[in-house]
Amino acid sequence: MDFTMDVENNNTQLPPANAPEKCPEKRKATATSDDKPVEIKRLKEDCSDVATAPRPPPQSPKKRLQLEGKPSNNKPKYNKDLNFLYGNYKHYYGKRILDKDFHDIRLDVLATQPELFRDKQLLDIGCNSGHLSIEICKKFNAKSLVGLDIDRGLVKDAQTTIGSLKRLAPPGSTFPYNVKFLHGNYVLDDDVLLEIERPQFDVILCLSVTKWIHLNFCDAGLKQAFRRMFLQLRPGGKLILEPQSFDGYKRRKRLSESIRDNYNSIKFRPDQFPEYLLSPEVGFASMELMGIPEHCKTGFKRPIQIFTKA
Ligand SMILES: C[S@@+](CC[C@H](N)C(=O)[O-])C[C@H]1O[C@@H](n2cnc3c(N)ncnc32)[C@H](O)[C@@H]1O
User: Does 147 contact ligand 1 (Cβ within 6 A)?
Assistant: First the structure.
């Protein structure tokens, strides 16, 4: 089985959670802002206040801890749980798939064009724990599938699942031996690395991932990822894109200070993605709407689009 995804060009150097690399706007902000002196001054002022302020009435240690832990009103409140900065939820499919058969409703949309996948080489960007990738490869008889995710733990889970399926598979079967999961950041450290990309996939899936690339790597990172997708597709290849709407970004901007800054810097909106993907800067020849999954939660009713490389 030929897994030709260029592992050399796979970006396994992840940026620290609070310092995304890709945003020039962010770098500029860091270089020019001067938070420290302000912070020190405020601390000094606070100290002098303590010296002169009247003592508060005595309180129980429990009550005092509660009061001290309460965030002040004038500071932004960030979600302390920085584990899911990339949308790398551990139980994503448990939340998304609500029916008892564990059937992902997006498979019904993909099933409207099964020939897109049959005997094709697929890349699934942001594969999470691999549930949907495995289903797609099996159900549509793909030639091979590479799943890539920025979260090492999720990739390990996906590899464990494939390992178990291999133990159960009849000898000589193609599936699941044609599935492979890799850890890495799809966004490259430098655009110059795009120069060594070559066409190696027939289909690239990018489902519910654009928001996370966008919030962590800004407009520049997402545009680079789109260009990389185009370069990795063979002529006639398809990008299957399920972008999140911009409304859904807002809720996530409290995840961290970096993500809030990145969110504020975004100018490239999801409704502009088709125009960009079809522009000479990327190069796709056409776009069609594959369908909108009939999910019972409005937030998961995201259009699935197909972009074709001529
Ligand atoms: C919301 S989940 C979607 C999972 C899957 N694509 C689906 O639709 O069922 C987003 C996934 O993208 C991954 N991800 C986010 N940014 C990424 C990046 N820059 N490179 C690779 N994976 C990324 C996250 O770790 C997470 O597993």
Answer: no
Cα–Cα distance list, 242 to 75, 183, 305 (Å)? 35, 21, 6
Confidence of residue 80 (pLDDT cuts 50, 70, 90): low
**Protein residue with least CA distance to atom 2, ligand 1:** 87
**Buried/exposed 26-56: b ≥16 CB within 10 Å, e otherwise:** beeeeeeeeeeeeeeeeeeeeeeeeeeeeee
Q: Which residue's alpha carbon is at the smallest distance from atom 25 of ligand 1?
A: 88
Nearest ligand 1 atom to the CA of 154 is: 27
List the one residue out of 79, 60, 83 whose CA is nearest residue 150: 83
pTM: 0.81
Question: How far is ligand 1, taken at its centre, from the CA of residue 212, in Å?
Answer: 7
- Choose between 100 and 111: higher pLDDT: 111
Q: Whose CA is nearest to atom 1 of ligand 1?
A: 87
Ligand 1 probe mutation, 92, 95, 135, 149, most atoms within 8 A of CB = 149
Measured in Å, residue 17 CA sits from the centre of ligand 1 at 15
158-203 pLDDT, tens per residue?
Answer: 999 999 999 999 999 999 999 999 999 999 999 999 999 999 999 9
Query: What's the rounded Cα separation, in Å, for the pair 214 and 205?
Result: 17
3-state secondary structure 123-146: EEECCCCCHHHHHHHHHCCCCEEE
